[in-house]
Design goal:
By secondary structure, the chain is α+β, with helices and mostly antiparallel strands. It is built from 14 helices and 7 strands. A hairpin with a 3-residue loop joins β6 (702-708) and β7 (712-720). The longest helix has 101 residues, at 407-507.
Amino acid sequence: MTESTAPQGPEPAASTTGAQRPAVHRRISTQLYAGIFGAVVLTIVASVVSWISFSNVDDSQRRVSEESVPELAGAFGLAEFSNALVAAAPRLTTAPSDQFTTISAEVATAQREFNDHFKPLARANPTDVHVQEISAAADELEKNITTITADMPHFYSLTRKIEQLQIEIPTLSDAANSIILPAIDDQLFFQVTGYRDQVSDPIDPMTRTSGGELLLYRHLNALQADVAQASELMGSALIASEVAFVEPLTESFESVDDRIQISLSAIAESEMVPGLEPAVNDLLALGKGDESAFQVSVDRLEIIARQDRLLTENQALAVDLLDEVHAIVQTAQAGADQATENSAQTINTARILLVIISVIGVIGAGLISWLFVGRVLLRRIGRLSGRMRTLAKGDLEEEIEVSGRDEIAEMASALEVFRRHALEIQRLNLVEQLAQELSERNDELQEVLEELSQAQDQIVAREKLAALGEVTAGVAHEIRNPLNFINNFSAASAELLEEMAEVYEDLTDNLSDEDKDLIEEINQDLNDNLERIQSHGKRANRIVQDMLLMGRGGGETQMTDINDLIHEHSLLAYHSARAQDPEFQVLLEEEFDPDMGQLEVVPQDLGRVFLNFVANAGYATNKKQKELIEAGTVGDYTPTVVLKSRRTDESAILSVRDNGSGIPPDVAAKIFDPFFTTKPTNEGTGLGLALSNDIIREHGGTITVNTEPGEFTEMVVELPLTRAKSTPLTGDGEDAGGDDA
């Protein structure tokens, strides 16, 4: 590495402290200050002119804003709310009952806003004739609106009563007629035939055509006509358009009422029409009293007439009010127009003066820019800028020329110092680059070391699988030999029983019935026992076969039904636990996705994983049950292991959940560590979950542990639907040797 050396020789202008400063009159700053001072003088002159002009404009605008504009705005606002005040009465009289409250509130708001706009105008012009006229008209309008507002609730109530009466009158009339008409028919039938009913004997003609019977018939007919007339009179009163039309209807109703009472008295003496008098009187009650149909109609028509009068009066007041408001608006408009014209004249004068001053300023700025900035400053700054671009490209060898005795010369001297320092920094950068390359090489070596460590872990895992597989295979072979003897001798015993049965058939004649029954019962029992021995022997043989397949480990990937695989190995784990502990009990629940289907897996390896999970879950639940039994708090606790499968768009999610004691957080972080176990020394090796984790990773999946101490533990496996190509682990594994802490 070449050592960096400091530049030799003197360093002119390395510091501005010892350099000779340019004379005051030669400095760029002095010349710029002079030009700026001239521009400031022109600006001050323009400001003075502007100040005077703006003062005049301000006076004009003040008159507009303080006098004309408020007056004009108040006049326009007054005109706007005058229209709302004029429209208030028609809105109230035509408002539906369900909207009256809302419209009444809006009218009250319009009245307040009108008064809010009118009061300032009245205070400003208390003697103005237009203002006085507006005040009088507005007071009268508000008085009429108040009257209408007070009448409307009573008007709605009367309207509802009329609607109710229009329903009740026909109803009660029909009820009375339903009694009168059958009575008329019965009386006419009696006079013609002499029969009162179907049971009694007929009456002689002299009696049934007597004057009393005929008079009763006439009273019934008259009553029917009078009831119809009374209903019609009340209905006509309800739809009358003027109060004058209701009075004759009332008088006619009273006359009809008198006739009806006479007829009712005559009919009541005969006692032939029960219930007639109450029905007719109910109808007549609607036409009598303060709540009668006639009085309700009169009250409603009086309110309508009063509202019409007030509306007519409001129309005349509205015309006067709007005319006076329009006059005020015109007066305010004229004042605003005059003030605006004065402001416009002042602004035009100021504009001309500012244009003249601006022209002078532009000419002066042009002369300064051309003579001083363009011909002196920009040329020298351009040369200095070009040299700076050369330095930026990396050319640090050429020295920078320093000419003149002003600030630009000082900048050139400083740039020369920067050039020399840059040469030194360039040498230092070479050293840093070499150090960076060395650091990158170290990072590459670290990655290689990590890869070697991972390969070493994989080799250790394969060796563990191989060792465990050899043990499992040896045990399975040792068990298979006695199983073969059991199966063979049970088959031979069955054949001997068949031969004995043939001999027994030849000797049946020499045996008593009791002996025959005893021999047949014993023969049947022996056959049943042999069938059970053969069945359980075959079952044990299948278990051994599965252990041999698992013991081999690894194998080729193949399409496998995941639900079946979990089901078979959960049963294998269950029976294995039952063989070790006859009191072991656990409820296996399966919640499999029927659409799970098949996945490409190594069935022996994946089966070992779920055999391990179910064995650990069964161990945890059995242990919890024993602890609860010892504590006397078992209650309704049932050891349960739930097996689930679910297929998503991208993966298969498989889980084994138990209701055991759960795993504490400090233990959960270690359960996948090799040789870590919470079981007693003679019950677990601590390799089951570590190997299971390796197998799932070889399948491209993950294992997640969900647990809550004292409640449950759930092992969740997520496998991709399409398996990535990788080298599977080979070797042998243990049967349920892992941990459920």
